[in-house]
Structure formats: structure tokens, C-alpha cells
Amino acid sequence: MHKIYENIYIGNFIFLLGVVSERQRLSSSKESNISIDLYQQTPADPKIGDFFSSLNGRNLIIEFKKDVESIDDKEGEKQSSLLNCLIGKDDVELQKISYYSHFLGVGVNDGGNTADIELKSYLPYKDFEPTSFSMQEFIDSYCKGEEVQFLTKEDRAIQSKIGCDSNRFSEYLELLASLYKSGRSSSTGGLIVNISEDGRINCLSVPDVQNLVIKLSELNRNIERASPAPSLTPKNEMTSSLKPKGMG
After folding, report:
1. Considering its fold, how many domains does the chain have in total?
2. Does residue 114 carry a pLDDT above 80?
């Protein structure tokens, strides 16, 4: 049995994201310009935060855990703190955005060379069993722009597409940054994804999503919107030792 880390699940997610988007392109009667770009943050890319926050389309953030046993008490404290921050903001729409734009992806492995990810809204994870998605279901709905149902802490249902626009996403990242700076954090690998209106998919993968969120919020406060477009470094190669379930 392979020892599986969060970055392997992240790699599988990005791989399947590319496969699904290409399948949709091939089955569409319309011409589309679908591509998938994976970026890394380097010292030469100081404006990457501005780049992601200014993209059109739908944005989301996923925090990954290798298995359910790795979800410790710190994660529960962080989730409770996030809920309190959202309630304190008295912004019902921002609370809804959390449910359909911020997710926890937990690895599921059968003991062999296949892996899946169970994705749930991050906010209510510790309090009750919210709506969950397999990796295939989640990516299919996200790429197609389908409305899906999310259960909230109050046991109410929200119908929405997965992901939110850049302005509100930047606001949500700012709230997360204030939470993570408070010291109630738990190191987690993560992924920020954008699917633009023309079908282009942009991904930013990091080993510590808390540090990324803090850096992005600092960059966004210091960068004027009129500044030139950022320089980004695409990763040209990505491999994984596992195959997503359902893939040949």
C-alpha cells in the first residue's frame, strides 16, 4: 500500500479536472478555448494574487486532508472560528459563498493504487453531515456550471453553482486571512481554482493554504488595479503515483 500525501490527491484532482474539461470541449457543438494552467508562486511572480482576484468566472478554494484521521482538533477550532467570523460580519451572502466556494477534500483510498476524494463544504464539516461529492461529481458540476444543493448549518438548502465571482472571492480570502493570522490554524495543502467564462481553467497549488491566503490578501491590499498584468510561471509537468477512480 502506498503512503499517500495531500499533494497526490491534489495532483489527481487537477488531472481529472483537465480530463473532464477536455471531454466537455469535444462533446460541445460550440467552439471553445478550454485549457488548464497550473501556476506556482515564485519571487518573480509578485502579482499572482492580483491575477487570480481579477479573473472573471467562478473561483473556489479547497483544503485537502489525506484521510479522515488527519482531521484534528485544530481543524475543528478553525472551522468554528470561521463560522463566528462570518456571523460577526452579518453578511448572509458571504456566509452562502463560504458553502459553495470553500471546500474540504478528504482522501479515500481502498488500500491499493486507486484514490478518490470526498468533497464537502468546509464550514459545516464538524457539526453534521453536509452534502458530499465524489471527485468526479464535483468536477463535472463545476465544469458544466450546474446548480447543486448545499446544506447549511441551519439545515437549510442553498441552490448554487460551485464557486463565486472574483470580487466576493477576494473578500472571502481577506476574511480567511484575518482568521489564519489569529493563530488558530492547521497546516493544510490546498488549491485555488478559477474557471473563466471562456473555459480556461487556472489552478494555484500550495503545500500550506493558510500561508497562501495571508500572502494573497497582503498582495491585494498593496496592488493597484491599474497595474500591469502579472508574470506567472506555469508548471509544465505533473505526475501522480495514483489514478483517480473511474479512470483507465
Report:
1. 1
2. no
104 assigned to some structural domain: yes
- Mind listing the pLDDT tens digit for each residue in 156-178? 788 999 999 988 888 888 888 87
Structural domain boundaries enclosing 150: 6-244
Helix (H) or strand (E) holding 189: strand 189-195
The greatest distance separating any two alpha carbons of the chain, rounded to the nearest whole angstrom, comes to 52
Cβ contacts of 188 within 8 Å, gap of 6 or more = 6, 63, 64, 65, 75, 208, 209, 210
Nearest to 117 by CA among 105, 129, 125: 105
Pairwise CA distance, residues 135 & 146, whole Å: 15
Is 211 among the domain residues? yes
Three-state secondary structure of 40-52: ECCCCCCCHHHHH
pTM for this model (two decimals):
0.79
Is 1 inside any structural domain? no
* Residue 140, in any domain of the structure: yes
In tens, the pLDDT along 200-247 reads: 888 887 777 777 777 666 655 554 443 444 444 444 444 344 455 555
